[in-house]
Amino acid sequence: MVRIFLAVLLLPAYLNAQTIPQKADELLTAYAQQQKFSGNVLIAKEGKILFEKAYGYADISRGKLNTTETEFRVGSLTKMFTSAVILQLANEGKLSLTDPVSKYVKGFPYGDQIQLTHLLSHTSGIKGSTGSPAPLTLDESVTNFKVQSLTFTPGSRFEYNNFNYILLSYIAQTVSGTAFPQLLETRLLEKSNMRHTGLDWKDRSSDKKALGYITNPETANWQVVNDGNIAIASGAGALYSTTKDLYNWSTAISNQVVLNDSMLVTAMKPVQNNYGLGWMVTQSKERTYVGHTGSIPGFIANFMKFPKEDITIILLSNYQDVNGRQLSDDLIAVAFNEPYQLPVKKNVAALSSDVLNKYVGEYRLPNGFSINVSVDGNKLYALAQGDAQKIELTAESENKFFLKGPETEIEFLQESNVVKYMFVNMQGGQKFEKVK
User: Fold this and answer.
1) Residue range 112-119: average pLDDT?
2) 39, 96, 317, 404: which sits with the fewest CB atoms below 10 Å from its CB?
3) CA 298 – CA 234 distance, rounded (Å)
4) pLDDT by residue (tens digit) across 25-46?
5) What confidence tens digit (pLDDT) does each residue in 63-89 have?
6) What residue ranges define each of the domains in the chain, with the CATH number in brackets?
7) Helix, strand, coil percentages for the chain (3-state, nearest 5)
8) From its phi and psi, is residue 63 left (phi > 0), alpha (psi between -120 and 50) or beta?
């Protein structure tokens, strides 16, 4: 009787665990069938992989499908690893997080004011560029970098800047006397059993390598992204990996294989803007998860680790225009048995030129970034500041539009029957005010 009673109590949890793979597959299949996703997803709980599956193509032209062993560029997920190397070196007494940059890069502008912890937490205030021609090596990236100014006093504000982590890569390499790719390999990847992970380089040859894709704004078809000199992103964003390897990283973090408890607490403690030292700390419905997002031409990634619930969700995509924020939220809902909606293919509406002309004008964010909206024939177009090519806005209803491919939503908002704003539903939502 006791065994039967216990079995009845445990049955709901068992059934819930069994539904995660089916729900995740249904969700991701819907995204893939609507040309909104290509990539791999892994969901694990309490030390067991509950779901791991690949969707779409690693190479469309060759008809080569993604598999669970496919290698994806993961962009800024790299920063978790760069941070770990710096923290290890600090723990060994080879550097201090409060050291000024000038201690390792002689003559670096404002180097006496900027500490390593400022670089790690994106609170350095560095502003500048590498100039032209583009640097080819990590050394050139640092020595050629032209600091224009400090946008704020180091430590006082948060401003995400990839150069912070390029500089950290250079410093780690200088302190250790070991090339940064090898430093990652010996200190982190080997110890974490990450055998299909490393810093990428242009034209790297691998049977498991995924090509990256974006939407062609004119045809709405996917087009491959140029390989580029990815190596120059170094410790800021050059890593490639697989879902299984990143799960091994999650396990290594839990088991304190590469960072001890005190270093993990330091890394995951928010400094500013919910960002620690190479780790994002995010609140989701009274739950906390740590990790990082990544975006690099042709790819996006998200590594989400819920320490208290012992759940890890890994999303890797070789289609950059996927709605990564929404898909990540959907996957969290799947893992926690919460409501979510399957993606729905949008309908196209035909609007008159009189309606379309209401939306013509310049729309601007408070930071000055602007988008110009124009009409050509019977179509509405948007041209973002700094872009050379305008993008068609496809009508869904009289005031709602979307971008073909990723189906990013745009809504024109009126006050007293006059168009005042344009709301773009991406990166948490951006509201542009009409200024002309």
Assistant:
1) 98
2) 96
3) 17
4) 999 999 999 999 999 999 999 9
5) 999 999 999 999 999 999 999 999 999
6) 1-345 (3.40.710.10), 353-434 (2.40.128.210)
7) 30, 30, 40
8) left
